[in-house]
Amino acid sequence: MPEFKRTSKDEAFKIMAKEPQTPRKPGKRRTAPRSLDIVIERLNDEGIGVARHEGKDLLVPGALKGEAVSVVIEHKGQHQLIGRLGKVLRKSPSRTVVNPCKHAGACQGCSLIAMNYQSQLYFKQDKIRYALDAYDPLKGIRLHPVWGAAHPFGYRTNAKLVMGKERGKVKIGLYRRGSHDVVDIEDCPLHHPLINRIAKVVKDEVERQEIYIYNSVTRRGLLRYLAIKVSPGLGKAMVTFVTAERNFRELTHMAKGLKSKVPEVVSVQQNINPSSGNVILGKETVRILGTPDLIDQVGDIQLRIAPSSFFQVNNDQAARIYQLVREWAALAPGDCAVDLYCGIGGIAMNLARDGARVIGIEVVEEAVRNARENARMNNIRTCTFVAGDAAELVHDLALEIPPGGVAVVNPPRSGCDREVLEALAGLEPRTLIYVSCNPLTLARDLDILSSLGYRTEEIQPVDMFPQTPHIEAVARLVPAQG
């Protein structure tokens, strides 16, 4: 099993900007950065190669375990060093023959792209096992092999891209590791092809119409981010321009130009975000043209998605999770189920297809609005969706839901508060299904549920995010005394 050391993403990807150079004396040449040869000992939990140098961890993005590589150290921190990968002197058997992305060394979206896909699945399996083994009650739990994706490239159906400008050239892409420099990504291999096509047209329209790009230093300009959601099954897309202020006139012209060149775009929105922080979406969204939402399809369910609603980035794998949850729940007509953090209602509606009564709880009101519309659109009449605080609403439900039902929880990466888990256990469900996108918080919460009388029977990992270190997992729990 690979050894993992928990390193925060900010630490792992932090490459500090170069400090101002001391003026050189006339005639003195600047020496090139010194390269050193090292052996990568392991990968950390973000999929970054780690070696030891001068008594510190040396992090090398793009390097794989066991490889001998040449590295240029770009940042020396108090506790760790950050290196830039040069030549691979001795390759790992896990390394791909051809790296399909020329931006892989600069952006932070796909740290495992240099690794062949089967090795990625082993890495993610071990990552979950490592997290579980930190807790005695979870050691030896049945962990199934990871369900790999049929399409490990071109799978992302939504993307949030940052806008930038350098030397008069518009850039659309992602931030360079550890900086606010924008890596201009022409053709991301992880994105659905329609996303790449839209981004290219938007860039051309911004340049043609000379629309001002927001500058995070001066806090001046209009366009900040570009958010794109795609429905691969229906071949449609929704585009949201995130701006620092209201400006309908310029965006209306650009939206019309985009629509004329990419007719698959059925909705164009403006989201206003005047804040100076790193949050992408603001609180206000205005429709510029087309429909207010995007219709998508996952399995047999159609879903209406608003600009600010969260939805999975991989439709094929999301459909497999929906089906697995439905099978594990094994609901019959008249049964009752609770779906906590239900989002736009995908899992809840799949559960209700067997005739059970399902109550979905979600804190985001716009997502609840979408969930209710989705239930009507799919002619599902046994789903109820409620907006509010999870712990409070679950406590209230205990008065009307009899013991012996099913509880499903699908929290954000931070997992569940103990109060929420206590409330769920208080419902006394016969089956508790936990869908997680973070092995560390999954293990922590399964350990808490163990102390509350629930035993984890099995875990099914699902690779929702190929080429990245992230992994989804679905756990099935039952009463320990059952």
UniProtKB/TrEMBL annotation:
Record-linked InterPro entries: MeTrfase_TrmA_AS, MeTrfase_TrmA_CS, NA-bd_OB-fold, SAM-dependent_MTases_sf, TRAM_dom, U5_MeTrfase_fam
Occurrences of domain TRAM (ranges): 23-87
A Pfam family assignment: tRNA_U5-meth_tr
Entries under PROSITE patterns matching the protein: SAM_MT_RNA_M5U, TRAM, TRMA_1, TRMA_2
Gene3D superfamilies linked to this entry: 2.40.50.1070, Nucleic acid-binding proteins (2.40.50.140), Vaccinia Virus protein VP39 (3.40.50.150)
Keyword Cytoplasm carried by entry: no
Position of the signal peptide: none
Keywords: Methyltransferase, S-adenosyl-L-methionine, Transferase
Active site: C437 (nucleophile), C437
Ranges of biased composition (kind: Basic and acidic residues): 1-17
Family that this chain belongs to: Belongs to the class I-like SAM-binding methyltransferase superfamily. RNA M5U methyltransferase family.
PANTHER family: RNA M5U METHYLTRANSFERASE (PTHR11061), TRNA (URACIL(54)-C(5))-METHYLTRANSFERASE (PTHR11061:SF30)
Name recorded for this polypeptide: 23S rRNA m(5)U-1939 methyltransferase
Organism: Desulfuromonas soudanensis
